[in-house]
Amino acid sequence: MAEADRPDAGALVERIRQLEKINEALIDRVERSSDVQGGAFSMFEAAIALEAMVRDRTAALEQALSRLNEANAEMAEAHRDADAARVRLRDAIESLPDGFALFDADDRLLLHNEAYLGFWPALRGRDLSSVTFGEIAEMAAQSGLPVGSLVSRERWLADRLSQHAKADRVHVQALADGRWVQINELKTSEGGRVGIYTDVTEVKAEDARERARELAERNLVLQATLDTLSEGVCHYGLDRRLLVRNQGMVRLLGLDARGSKRLETHAGLLSYCRDRLGIDCTSALEWRETGEQVETPCVLGGRHFIIRSTPLTPGGGMAFSFDDITERVQDRNALREAAEMLERRVAERTTALQAEIAERREVEGQLRAAKTAAEHANRDKTRFLAAASHDLLQPLNAARLFVSALAERRLAAPSRALVRQTGVALDSVEDLLEALFEISRLDAGAITPAWSAIELEPMLAALRIEFAAVARAEGLSLDIPVTDVWVRSDIRLLRRILQNFLSNAIRYTAQGCVSITIAAQEGGARITVRDTGPGIAPEHQEAIFEEFRRLESTQRIPGKGLGLAIVRRAATMLGHRLDVESTPGQGSAFSVLVPLAEARSDKGGDASRPMRPGVTGTQSLLVIDNDPAILAGMAALLRNWGHHVATATGPLDEEAAEAIAQGIDMIIADYHLDDALRGDEAIAIVRKAAGREVPALVITADRSDEVKATLAQARVPMLNKPVKPAQLRALMRNMLGNGA
């Protein structure tokens, strides 16, 4: 009998009691009846029959009650078995090393183990008998244990509830105590959720160590590349200490262990070349703060050299290269001796003046040929340096992509510090290389102001966001007002001026505040950055605008001494007047006077208004590059942004064909690919295979006008290596309609 069909024992007893009362009433009625026509006897007989029926029914009910008791005994046994199974299940769950949690269809916690509470200590001591997952997530967010909740509790809570609702993939959470937990959630057949929580802290730490090892290997590759140069190359930083040298220096200058140690400073280099090698022109090695590259012929150790000295701005320091030209000098000497011999023969033979002129023309022709050969050699060297720049930027670009991808993950504090230090080191290398490229662009006059009407408020809002965290970290208050002023200038150069003013003010102010004020003056807007720093003596207020010039009192504070030099050049180019007011011990005020402009109504199209960041959708991207490290770095960075990424070394690879078949939203290609294939040609092949004009961009380390013209003709945007993630993301967002 099914449990639902079994009669209730109490109901049966009550039914029997009612029937007995009915039987007694009938018998009493029969006994009291006095019908003279025999009716009383008939009623008596009916009562007897009724009593027999009651007894039969009572026996049946007693039998049913007996069966009910047996069923209750079986049910009690089943309950005991279920309790035992439940105890065994809980013991099995508690034995798991991972955290375990089971939620029903109403998202209420049914079952969990002690390891689960180990990940969320805030749940200990609470009544979890009817708690929902949403309540658990809220308690975890309030405790501040998840790193994401420290940044934005509401956003972390919304993301976590969304992940739990989908329960379709594995994800990782960073905890504030340095641990990493991997969460694997699945849906049950009854509509509930089951979650497995695994501690993956050691796995994350090992991955960070592997990334650091790869970066060190790439630095070795960079040094090996410099060692392949035939010239001796050395670079001294702003403190005049050696930053890098190649093996060419050791070979050309005959350095031993002691000599190599002497070259660790610029003064040591000068002393070694003067005292040991007997250089005949020490001016070739003099330190210069500014200026262009200078080539000086010198004699060192009995051999002839061309020493090239180049001040490096804005990175700072000086670079020297030693080119051994002994053989070429010997050839020129031989040529000169031949010419002298010819002149003597002409004098001896007393030939005509025209013969002498002919001989001299011949010599001049030889000199022109030698000059042409030298120009060809110089062009060859320029092409070599361009190729070397590409090779140098390849590993740096890959390293930056890896570090940027890693930085966007939730990391433990020690790992985050390592990533930040790695990024700082990459920034230093990038600044050094970018300085070389910037010098060439300045020499070519490639930087010209782009004048436009600029609304100051968006620019100030961006600076407010950019420097708020820096000022807060230094314990300073930052006051940047809201304004409706419009000015006329170049937005990029004006922003650079204000950035450098703010950066210096925060760097050199120990306590107090940094502020910006805007005042009308002489038909323009005077934008002033004030601080409560140590101040600058009047005799030093002009010198601080020179390259690499830093005051003695600020030597211990990090910096290159180029910020204000860049400000002066930018202001001179724009024609904006600079002023500085400062009193020692009372702070400083740096200001720039910018012409006013008429306010524009089409603010939506103003280039000065920063683009709003955000992700509106996942895109499918195809990345093409012949360097596997670049592919891996780009894939890691773009996947961190939430995109689907396919990588290929060429447009005809299987990976590219598969990505095209599945559909792609954008192509990112390197310019120099294998087999003499260019990035724009690869993009054309992919577009033809896809049957449509897929948005595309090219990334290259080649900054030549030829490459720019080629890509401009193909209407393909480009970014220079090393790629800055913010620039890449902004360009992608613009090309994909705010979808990057």
TrEMBL record:
Annotated catalysed reactions: ATP + protein L-histidine = ADP + protein N-phospho-L-histidine
EC number from the UniProt entry: 2.7.13.3
Coiled-coil spans in chain: 54-88
Top EC group: transferase
Gene Ontology molecular function: ATP binding
Keyword hit for Coiled coil: yes
Matching Pfam families: HATPase_c (PF02518), HisKA (PF00512), PAS_7 (PF12860), Response_reg (PF00072)
Keyword list, A-Z: ATP-binding, Coiled coil, Kinase, Nucleotide-binding, Phosphoprotein, Transferase
Record PTM 4-aspartylphosphate, positions in chain: 670
PROSITE patterns for this protein: HIS_KIN (PS50109), RESPONSE_REGULATORY (PS50110)
Tree of life domain: Bacteria
CDD domains for the chain: HATPase, HisKA, REC
Response regulatory domain mapped to chain residues: 620-736
PANTHER family associated with the record: HISTIDINE KINASE (PTHR43047:SF9), TWO-COMPONENT HISTIDINE PROTEIN KINASE (PTHR43047)
UniProt protein name: histidine kinase
Native organism: Novosphingobium humi
